[in-house]
Design brief:
- By secondary structure, the chain is an alpha/beta fold.
- The strands form two sheets. The protein has a six-stranded mixed sheet with strand order 1-12-2-3-4-5.
- Helix 1 packs antiparallel against helix 2 and helix 2 packs across helix 3.
- The radius of gyration is 32 Å and the shape is elongated.
- The chain contains twelve helices and twelve strands.
- It folds into two domains: about 110 residues, no CATH class; about 250 residues, Purple Acid Phosphatase, chain A, domain 2, CATH 3.60.21.
- Its cofactor is a divalent metal cation.
- It comes from Thermobispora bispora (strain ATCC 19993 / DSM 43833 / CBS 139.67 / JCM 10125 / KCTC 9307 / NBRC 14880 / R51).
- This is Metallophosphoesterase.
- Keywords: Hydrolase, Membrane, Metal-binding, Transmembrane, Transmembrane helix.
- One of its GO terms (molecular function) is UDP-2,3-diacylglucosamine hydrolase activity.
Length: about 450
């Protein structure tokens, strides 16, 4: 499916953009058409170079390619979206132009109107005497010829070309403005979302326990150490009891990105910082194990299909974490039975799981609250409309029937970073402060 998607992006989308934006707005064989066509080909060729360059040439080469490559991916996406949005008004304009041209040509009026508009005999004779070649039929039987529609002035453009260029300019400006706004959002401070959640089995003594949740930080070729430092500073300012990092921390190896993760050693919380793997940890180097060890050295505890007890004010809850579903292909997938087996069922349990899709299994195991990420909230609207095809929740809080009685709630954070284009539209980056309350 990934290869099919890549082929669609590299072939179908640029082809559509050429057909809709370049072809109708330029003359055949013109210099403008040649330049725009080659620019489209060259920019599109950056995409596979960006995706493959890091693996072949190393992260330094990837840093050079990633900015133009991923930004073009975002611009191309919004050129496509805005072009599709213009299909309806474009079709309406085409119909109106055809009707306008039909009315402008004499002799195409309705029969009754044509009869009234037929020139008198004297007028026909005057036209013949004047030698008007475009006049009506003469006594010698010369055929009547309609006057040709006026041609555009020399160096000018006709109405269709003008509308096509206007539409292409509007699409281009809209795409650039949207990507510019999205870059500012993605590269700015994450939004702090304060979310109170009631758990029906929570001991009242645990009410007010705060869990700072962050996901999808995506340390990689487009981020610097300032990105990590800012996230750590913002989390520490929340004075949370627990810090939960729910996957997709990195897009590379410890050797390449270890220095970017170093500020995590300064995370502050009363009961510790915890981490579960996301799908991108399985794409980094030889797998997640090197990052598991690196995070341990930074004072962040990985939860590998296991749980810990969080004691607070004389009461306790279970904090469990499972591996990402991507690890299943290598025998390192989620194991809820192992993480949750043998625990006190009267005690509430909070589950850290990167992908929301695990919520159904969590509900079957009696989980009270699941904290997830992965979706980025869609990252680039209207991608948020496609996320439900794969995940049960796009962003925010939702609930599902829990085994036995009650409901399993899941909160999906939008993530504090971005994957691919450093652009977020309709889904600002987020750090979430969960505050537990008794049911």
């Amino acid at each position: 499916m990934f290869l099919i998607l890549v082929l669609v992006v590299l072939l179908a989308v640029p082809g559509y953009l050429w057909w809709r934006l370049i072809k109708p707005a330029t003359h055949p064989g013109s210099r403008a058409r040649r330049l725009l066509t080659w620019a489209l080909i060259g920019l599109t060729a950056l995409l596979p170079a960006t995706m493959i360059g890091g693996r072949v040439l190393g992260i330094e080469a990837e840093r050079v390619l990633a900015w133009p490559g991923y930004l073009w991916l975002a611009v191309m996406f919004y050129l496509f979206v805005f072009s599709l949005a213009l299909e309806v008004p474009r079709a309406v304009a085409a119909v109106l132009i055809r009707r306008s041209r039909a009315k402008a040509v004499p002799g195409r009026a309705a029969p009754e109107a044509g009869a009234a508009a037929r020139p008198a005999e004297g007028e026909r004779e005057s036209a013949a005497a004047a030698g008007n070649p475009a006049g009506p039929a003469t006594a010698t039987g010369t055929a009547v010829r309609d006057p040709a529609p006026p041609a555009p002035e020399a160096g000018g453009i006709d109405r269709r070309m003008f509308l096509s260029r206007t539409a292409s300019a509007l699409v281009g400006m809209g795409a650039l403005a949207t990507v510019g706004y999205g870059m500012r959002t993605a590269l700015g401070d994450p939004v702090i979302e304060r979310v109170p959640i009631r758990l029906d089995r929570l001991d009242p003594r645990l009410a007010g326990l705060r869990i700072a949740t962050v996901s999808d930080i995506h340390l990689g070729p487009l981020t610097g150490i300032g990105h990590t430092r800012r996230i750590v500073r913002m989390i520490n300012e929340l004075e949370a009891d627990v810090v939960a990092i729910v996957g997709d921390l990195v897009d590379g190896t410890v050797q390449e990105l270890g220095h970017l993760a170093a500020p995590l050693r300064h995370l502050e919380s009363r009961y510790g910082a915890y981490f579960v793997t996301g799908n991108h940890e399985y794409y980094s180097g030889e797998g997640p194990q090197e990052w598991i060890e690196e995070l341990r050295s930074l004072g962040v505890r990985p939860l590998r299909n296991e749980r810990v007890e969080i004691s607070h004010a004389g009461a306790a809850l279970d904090l469990a974490g499972v591996n990402d579903v991507t690890g299943g292909s290598s025998g390192d997938g989620p194991d809820l039975a192992r993480a949750l087996g043998g625990r006190d069922p009267s005690r509430p349990v909070v589950l850290l799981a990167h992908q929301p899709i695990l919520v159904h299994q969590a509900a079957a195991h009696g989980v009270d609250l699941q904290l997830s990420g992965h979706t980025h909230g869609g990252q680039l609207a209207p991608f948020n409309l496609l996320v439900p095809l794969q995940q049960p929740v796009v962003a925010g809080l939702a609930s599902f029937p829990r085994a036995g009685a009650g409901r399993t709630q899941v909160y999906v954070t939008r993530g504090a970073g971005a994957w691919g284009p450093p652009v977020r539209v309709g889904a600002p980056p987020e750090i979430t402060l969960i505050e537990l309350r008794a049911g």
